[in-house]
Amino acid sequence: MMNASHDQNSSNKVPGYSIIKPLKGQKALVTGASSGIGKAVAVALGQAGASVVINYRSNEKGAAEAVKAIKDCGSEAFAFGADVSQPADVQAMFKAMFDAYGTVDILVSNSGIQQDAAFDEMTLAQWQIVIDVNLTGQFLCAREAVKEFKRRGVVPEVSRAVGKIICMSSVHEVIPWAGHVNYAASKGGVMLMMKSMAQELAPLKIRVNSIGPGAIKTPINTAAWSTPEAEQELLKLIPAKRVGEPEDIGPAAVWLASDESDYVNGTTLFVDGGMLLYPGFEDGG
Ligand code: BGC
Q: CA-CA distance, 134 to 195, in Å (whole number)?
């Protein structure tokens, strides 16, 4: 049953941000923003004052909903269909963004998929597509963003940083995941890609960080929480005893994109209800 605070979360309101608008004047691109975590993050950035490009691959309807939600709170937004694993699509998307908004200040590389299989039954196609979207897609988008950050340099009235990149990772950048070897490998890769980029780019005032969500109710993991039995099993892995909502992630992204986190470089902010706290030891082990 939903309680009052859950209802408030679900209305997509990020308390405070709609008044303070910490991202006013900034241009953001969120990949995979037509559903789940990406959509909630895009709306939160819009509420915080950013103009937002909503990337989607096939869910045009969800992308249109995100655009509307952002416009309803007074910010600009448009949707752009592109497959982040394809260099030509990624370049066309950034070109459309530069034509519309002139530059990019914030990239949230969020697109991600799962193709689960027992290890010895995993096909090369299942391995490859997960690596292509979850890891290579983040590389391709970040590369375009960094080229533009370097070209433009810092604009002090917009942000102390030249640019901010937020990689959507997962608790599975550290928790091994049987039956999901391709996915865990992609997120482990995102972790060291993010840290290596942060090390290389911090001297240029480019900040690169990740968000590591735990179990969040989105289309990617519906089977894990959509029946009471499945949800009970899942809650054994979550000390906070609640499955997260996409709106739990939005404020974390706003903070990592804002100057409030200006000294934060190369870190993963886990938003997981404590999933990383070895919940098997909850009763003393
Ligand atoms: C996965 C979800 C899973 C969660 C916690 C996420 O990265 O996409 O399917 O529920 O990690 O295991």
A: 16
